[in-house]
Design goal:
With 457 residues, the protein is of the alpha/beta class. It folds into two domains: 251 residues, Putative sugar-binding, N-terminal domain (Rossmann fold); 181 residues, Four-carbon acid sugar kinase, nucleotide binding domain (Molybdenum Cofactor Biosythetic Enzyme, Chain A, 3-Layer(aba) Sandwich), CATH 3.40.980. Helices cover 37% and strands 19% of the residues. It has 15 helices and 18 strands. Helix 7 packs across helix 8 and helix 13 packs across helix 14. The chain is globular. It starts with 5 loop residues before the first strand and ends with a helix.
Length: 457
């Protein structure tokens, strides 16, 4: 697969489908796998120009992250793509102990031996802006309104697992990585391209292990891609760390060069019932759930604390039965583990974790909650199959999809920036050929679930 333009590993499933959307919409034939593909699975990607793997490293301790990532990168490197991208959340929320982006950077440098390791800080189309190394973000992905400095962001600064107390990405990564990280700051984009190339070459010659690139305007993404392409020699890949802004920039560059042409038509299911299963603690998702409840959706609260104890199966069964009954009479349904960061179920679940023998620590709890959502969806697909399913929550959705037996995804149509419709490949399982959306916590407007139910793109 030496003609492969890009291979990427995403730290969660919602991020993986975000990157898939950027590529497929631009006309890059892309196959997304939910685990490291073997030779048989790679046959599904015949003719692909890009391949992705949806990981779950965002929820893992650093050593477990490396154990998952290193063999996956070895497989992707063997395919000899021009670019390898470790796809992170657009707000870089991580820590040395959980979802360490710095550890991922170190592993990628060691495994891929790139001439250039780039960290793309911003993605203006997503409402993410990086200036002089500091990251700013709007409250909603792609939303209008004020952009908050990362350490003052109303959601990211108080994330229940990885609250961000620093906005300078060099400092964030320095606490997690052994690499020397230098800055290609926003002023460089005003210079001629040749001078940009010379500045980047100088940073690398002076010993930069990775280079952080500012981005505050849409045009900066294509400029970044043009620089990165200079180091993609077909022998060793360019390694990039960051959001789907990497795909956005590369696709714009490839399109301008005539290597790809935009997709023109989509075929996806616009009708039928919608099941939303939410593991998100974001206030954005909470507002979307409240909007849905006011506009005709039925609401089922899942007993999250019971899921980390002996009552797991009973709690899932009760919620699944209630949801299936509502779906059977034509209602759209939203099932949730929490409504916002202040939901009492979060604290109650955390209190039950330490003494519980059923869990494996914080990352084990995330897996337990995610797989519980997967079992609930599977039971609903058997009892009263919805036409479409939305999984909300980056950390939990990866485990829910694995519980459903999903092996691969292909994009079937756009819905909202960062959250496309995808058709599942889950041989012999109920989820096979079902259309899913995997939504990050901050993705979408308040009426997001209503737009999905109405079939509007």
């Amino acid at each position: 697969m030496s003609d492969l333009l890009l291979a990427y590993y995403a730290d969660d499933l919602t991020g993986a489908t975000d990157a898939l959307e950027q590529l497929a919409t631009a006309g890059v034939r892309t196959t997304l796998f939910l685990e490291k593909p073997d030779a048989t699975m790679l046959k599904l990607a015949a003719g692909a120009q890009a391949i992705g793997i949806a990981g779950a490293t965002r929820a893992l301790p650093a050593d477990a992250l490396e154990a998952q990532l290193r063999p996956a990168l070895a497989t992707l490197s063997w395919l000899r793509p021009r670019h390898i991208h470790y796809k992170t959340c657009s707000t870089f929320d991580s820590s040395p102990a959980r979802g360490s982006i710095g550890r991922a950077l170190d592993v990628a440098r060691d495994a891929c031996r790139p001439r250039l390791t780039a960290v793309l800080g911003g993605s203006p189309p997503l409402g993410r802006y990086c200036a002089f190394g500091n990251l700013f973000a709007t409250e909603n992905v792609g939303g209008a309104g004020a952009a908050h400095r990362l350490d003052r962001h109303p959601t990211v600064s108080c994330h229940p697992a990885t609250p961000m107390a620093e906005s300078d990405l060099r400092r964030v990564l320095a606490a997690q990585s052994d690499a020397r990280i230098e800055l290609f700051d926003v002023r460089q984009w005003q210079r001629p391209h040749q001078q940009q190339r010379e500045q980047l070459a100088q940073l690398l010659a002076e010993g930069a292990g990775a280079v952080l690139f500012d981005a505050v305007e849409d045009a900066h993404l294509a400029m970044f891609a043009a620089l990165a392409e200079q180091y993609a020699d077909g022998q060793s890949p360019v390694v990039s760390i960051g959001s789907s802004g990497v795909e956005t920039g590369l696709c714009r560059h490839w399109s301008a060069a005539g290597r790809i042409s935009a997709a023109s038509a989509w075929q996806h299911n616009n009708g039928g019932g919608l099941l939303v299963a939410s593991g998100s603690c974001s206030p954005v998702t909470a507002a979307q759930i409240d909007w849905a409840a006011r506009h005709g959706f039925a609401e089922v609260a899942l007993d999250a604390p019971a899921l980390v104890g002996a009552g797991r199966e009973q709690a899932v069964g009760r919620a699944a039965a209630a949801a299936a009954e509502l779906l059977a009479v034509g209602r759209n349904v939203v099932v949730h583990l929490a409504k916002g960061p202040a939901d009492a179920r979060i604290a109650a679940t955390q209190q039950r974790v330490a003494p519980s023998a059923d869990t494996k620590g914080g990352d084990g709890v995330t897996e337990t909650l995610g797989r519980s959502l997967g079992r609930l969806i599977d039971e609903c697909l058997q009892a009263a199959p919805p036409a479409r399913v939305c999984l909300a929550g980056g950390d939990t959705s990866s485990f829910a999809a694995r519980e459903l037996g999903i092996q691969a995804l292909e994009m079937t149509g756009p819905a909202s920036p960062g959250a496309p419709w995808c058709r599942a490949c889950a041989p012999t399982r109920r989820a096979d050929q079902v259309e899913f959306i995997f939504k990050g916590g901050q993705v979408g407007t308040e009426a997001f679930f209503g737009l999905l139910a109405s079939g509007q793109d």
